[in-house]
Amino acid sequence: MRARFVLFVIVAALLAAPLFAGGGKEAAQALKGKLTIWSTLTQEPRKVALEKITQDYQKEHPEVTVEIDVIGWTGAFDKMVAAISAGNPPDLATVGQGWPQSLAGTGGIVTVDDVIAKIGGPKIFFGTGLSVLGSLDDKAYSIPIYVTPHIISYRKSWLAEAGKQPFKTWEEMYDVAKAVTNPGKNRYGYTIPFADVHGGKPVWGFLLANGVTIFEKDSAGKWKLNVEQPAAVETYEFLHKLIKDTAPQGAVSYVVTDLRNLVTKNVLLGMYDTPEVLDAIKAAAPDMLADTGFTFIPARKRLGSSQGWVGLVVFQKGNQAIAKNFSEFMFQGDRLIDYYLSYPAAMFSPVEAHYKVQRYLDGLPAELKPILPVAPEILKYSAGISQWNGANAWAGEIENKVILPNALNEMLTKNITAEQAVKKVADEIRRLMGQ
């Protein structure tokens, strides 16, 4: 895998064309007005880095003022839909996976193929960041800003005490989590963040690793639901058993930050997360970093994983000219490199050429350096929720309505069966599809 990554970097380095040309003084003078950005990226380093970009933009465009409203992920999608319906959306916003397709269905955002062309064309993006996650019906509705591989962390010393090795199958993952679980020592295995929008990502990752894609296309090219199948039932049975037998009490009320806190307090073996879990460990218990290992969802029928993804969308009733120009501005020079390094554990570049920028590679903290070489590989076999076979209009709502983890929650709290859980998922998605 490392050899393939080295080849990947060498090939990228041979791309002799300069990155992302600038806009010119005439364009700058023509832009006047206000740019309102809704940012779902709440962490202070990212807020500061985005503010720095807007300050630089305003220096080059003195007749443009920029206002950033940080709104957070929870409820952001519904807020955007409501703003579109009310006719008062922002000009530009960061969005999560599936959101561009769902927002495009409202008619409230515009295509950004013109922006993509100006920053280098579709070829600059690797994997599915633009072709699937940023597009619908072969039109770009979002500009990918970053992608994030998902990992499963674990404590090396806990495995050693239990006489276990890092797991390579689902059965081994359960055995490891069960072996380290000891309520008397306040030690537990794994759970997922049921109480926030990120809860669907691990469920989707395991479904995909078991060959369940949620949607596939029929012979006429129309989407059909394929989630009701034995492999989906098997996946829900496995996750139910893992969490029921190895998670602490109250797991269904946890959000991502709760799980990270439990990891740093020596309560959880680890978690399925972005590499941000390493940031949490570094901040709260830096000595624990050396004792932290990482792996990926074991393949059951195929390699599969969820991924983090964030893009920019331009609203139809917003100031489109300034919003698109600002999006181009972000891609000029090393601005995105600086942005990624402000919060590197969560933001990996979707742009192939960035992986040859030495300042990016050198700027990563030590704990992330082992992940970066394998990140492109992980991202190649991962996809946004329900979008393995291509972009669809329901992905954003599947994530936003936490349909996948809600069914698992009911297995734990209402004792429904895995078959009932999968049927619940299918029924919820059919309602979204209007069936």
Number of domains: 2
* Helicity, as a percent range: 40-55%
Second CATH tier, the architecture of the largest domain: 3-Layer(aba) Sandwich
Indicate the radius of gyration in whole angstroms. Answer: 22 Å
The CATH C-level name of the largest domain is Alpha Beta
Low-confidence stretches: 1-19, 21-26
Q: What class would the helix/strand composition place it in?
A: alpha+beta
What is the CATH topology descriptor of the largest domain? D-Maltodextrin-Binding Protein, domain 2
Total strand segments: 12
In CATH, what is the homologous superfamily of the largest domain?
Answer: Periplasmic binding protein-like II
Categorize the overall geometry. Answer: globular
Please provide a written account of the structure:
With about 425 residues, the chain is α+β, with helices and mostly antiparallel strands. It has two domains: about 1-150 and about 305-380, 3-Layer(aba) Sandwich (D-Maltodextrin-Binding Protein, domain 2); about 150-305 and about 400-435, Periplasmic binding protein-like II (D-Maltodextrin-Binding Protein, domain 2, 3-Layer(aba) Sandwich), CATH 3.40.190.10. About 45% of the residues lie in helices and about 15% in strands. It has 19 helices and twelve strands. It has helices at about 1-15, 25-30, 45-60, 75-85, 100-105, 115-120, 155-160, 170-180, 200-210, 230-245, 255-265, 275-285, 320-330, 335-340, 360-365, 375-380, 395-400, 405-415, 420-435; strands at about 35-40, 65-70, 90-95, 135, 140, 145-150, 150-155, 215, 225, 270-275, 290-295, 305-315. The strands form four sheets. The chain has a five-stranded mixed sheet. A three-stranded antiparallel sheet has the order 10-7-11. Helix 3 links the parallel strand 1 and strand 2 (about 65-70). Mean pLDDT is about 90; it is low at about 1-20 and about 20-25.
